[in-house]
Amino acid sequence: MHDDQKYIDALVYRDDALVDEIYNKFAPECKRFIIKNGGSQNEAYNIFQEILKVVSLRHKSKPIELVVPFGEYLQSVYKNLWLDKNINKRQHDDQKYLEALVNRNEALVEEIYQNHAPECKRFVLRNGGTVDDAYDIFQEALIAVSLRHQSKPIELLVPFGGYLYRVYKNLWINELRMRNKDQSINIIDTENIKDPFFSLEQNKELQFIILKDSFNELKRDCKELLGMRMIDMSAKEIAEELDIEPNNVDQKMYTCRERLRKCCENHPLYKQL
Length: 273
Known about the structure:
single chain; mainly alpha; 72% helix
């Protein structure tokens, strides 16, 4: 147990002297982090107050045994809290494309075809399909997205192209599995996105360190979700395992990948890549 365990206990037992020490030693770093990442001084104060309550409640319900310095533990809490708050309030500009599919906005739907159908065609052709297959899969993907958004509105937090890519990729993988039941499926990605979770071609050792550290900063639900993705579980299998709606798996996956990406980009070694 770390010597800083006293700070955890102080929050629960309201040791005024140690609580003051917590504010003096750790609040300035929280303030610097929040302001550096687009927040205000008032938001930094509110976040710091909130994380102290969170830590205190956690320790009351299930005692925390501190094995790292308290400042390091506290930093992971307020970083995740700030990231959560920003993700939840930031809707992507491409939300308009989701609305266009539901409301049949012909101009925007045409834009979707022009901007994203060629990429779908490249992906399908590179992975054993035909031009007709690509057309069918793209149509099916748009219908799937529209139905999902109608049944339970999707709040888009990533570019529409990235979201759509995952949908038609999964649809095509499922189609290949049905066609080739006795064969393994090897997929060639065509999406040009820097993704630290699935791209380790260069600086492998450094990227692995950054990825491992960043993955450990994620909340438990994201660790579980991304871990299941790594072993190639389907959306249906993931939904059953986590007891969530299958329609929510893709969106949760994108959210967790974005959290991981941000953690990687904030890692002190990231600039060395």
